[in-house]
Amino acid sequence: MNRLLWWLRRHGQPYALTAGLALIAAALAAQWLAVGPLGRQIETAQTQREQRDATLERMSDALLRQDAPQARLDQFYGHFATHGAPLALGLERVHAIAAAHQLEMKRAEYRLSHPPGQKLDRYRMVVPIQGDYTTLRAFVSAVLRELPTLSLDQIQLQRQDIADGRLDAQITLTFYLVP
Q1: How far apart are alpha carbons 4 and 100 in whole angstroms?
Q2: Cα 35 from Cα 40, distance rounded (Å)
Q3: Is 120 helix (H, G, I), strand (E, B) or coil?
Q4: Residues 165, 101: one domain?
Q5: Cross-referenced InterPro entries, in alphabetical order (predicted)?
Q6: For 76-110, b where at least 16 C-beta lie within 10 A, e where not — what string?
Q7: Residue 97 shares a structural domain with residue 160
Q8: Which domain range does residue 162 map to?
Q9: What pLDDT, on the 0 to 100 scale, is given for residue 54?
Q10: How many domains, in total, are found in the chain?
Q11: Residue 79 lies in a domain
Q12: What is the pLDDT of residue 135?
């Protein structure tokens, strides 16, 4: 090791200059061959990202305009105008579904209400019905599935005797109607 240091002190200056020039040439070659293309790739990626950001901003503005609260509310009320059956047909459909499930609706209470400041009228129907649990559940499911503008507000189930398979049910349904 000492011998190498002695030799470098004596003869190292010309070699150091050559090694320094070689390192500078290698750095310039690395810059030209590796760093330059990477810089161009970075610039290209940044340009593409800026274009995507601009596109996303335009799309989000369009979605915000589309999903504005008033537009969503209008779409909601439009659902009742297009999917809501006229009241007579809705009532007829409820009775037909009950008959299909072998349930008899002997009587019902009906009440129409116009809540102030609301865009939908409510037609409440309270129906006492008797049947076994699975039949009543199938009836309610079928009514809600076939009449999308109807809601189940309340269902009361009562059994007179624990051994009795039949239930007395009082079902409250509400039709939502466009006036």
Answers
A1: 106
A2: 9
A3: coil
A4: yes
A5: T2SSM_b (IPR034756)
A6: eeeebeeebbeeeebbebbeebbeebebebeeeee
A7: yes
A8: 85-177
A9: 85
A10: 2
A11: no
A12: 94
